[in-house]
Every structure is written in structure tokens, then in C-alpha cells.
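Thought: the user asked what Ribose-5-phosphate isomerase looks like in 3D. I have the sequence; next I should run the structure tool and report back without guessing.
Action: structure_tool
Action Input:
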Amino acid sequence: MKVAISSDHGGNRLRAEIRDLMDGMGIEYEDFGPRDDSSVDYPDYARPVAERVAAGEFDRGIVICGTGIGMSIAANKVKGIRCALCHDVFSAKATRGHNDSNVLAMGERVIGPGLAREIAQTWLEGEFEGGRHERRIEKITELEQ
Ligand code: RB5
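Observation:
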């Protein structure tokens, strides 16, 4: 699996945590920044991750900001992206199983690093259940037309 990851300045520390998690899991990833702590605009960092996942260059994306909200809103504007904002493990598992989410958003200012790592690991390992959920994903895709 190949993962694209980015944050804004509000998510830099958590992005480093999740990179460390993926190193430990042996997951290949590319980091789309930012490179330092200066203030940036989250849509500029959600965009490259969302566009590359939508283009099929990466299997999944992870985007992080202070709340996770701005990043998730921006990522979901890109056709083909189903970005799930998760701050609990149950939602992380359910959104892979039911929504086949291809981008995960989290907020560094909302949860601690330990929980964030568990959420990300659960989401990265989670599998889409298909079946009746497939039809619902197709209806989401229809909304994009
Ligand atoms: C940046 O201050 C903050 O607005 C951003 O990280 C994010 O929380 C936006 O949704």
C-alpha cells in the first residue's frame, strides 16, 4: 500500500507521529509537507494528497490540521475522494468497512498522539466490506456527476 500524507502547521507534530507509525508498519508513503512550522493554508496541502489519491498514484491519503475539519472539507472537494474525519477507533474501523474511505483526516489539537496512532493503524488495516455498502458508494459517486 502507498500512502500520501500532509498537514498544515497545526498538524506538523501529529504528521511526524503518523510517519513514525507507518515506518513501524512497513508502509510506503510520500510526505507532501509542509517542511517547517510557518503558517500555511490547509487547502494547499489537502489538494496534492487528494488529487494523487484520486488519480490512483496512491492507495490512500492521510491529512492532518488543527481540527481535521478544514483538511477533510478540502479533500472531499476532489472527485473520487471519500475523506473521513475520525477521532475514535470505532469510526476509523467503520468508515473503512462501510464507506471505503480513501483519505483519513485527524486534528492534532483534538486528540493525543497515542489515540491518533491507534486510529490511523485501525484505518490503514481496515478493509472495505463491499456488499450493500458497494451500492451506497455508487450513489455517492453519482452525486459527483
Ligand atoms: C489553523 O489555525 C487551523 O485553522 C487549521 O489547522 C484547521 O484546524 C482548520 O480546519
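Thought: the tool returned a structure. Summarizing for the user.
Final Answer: Structure for Ribose-5-phosphate isomerase predicted. The two ends are 28 Å apart (CA to CA). The pocket of D-ribose is lined by residues 8, 10, 42, 65-67, 69-70 (CB under 6 Å).
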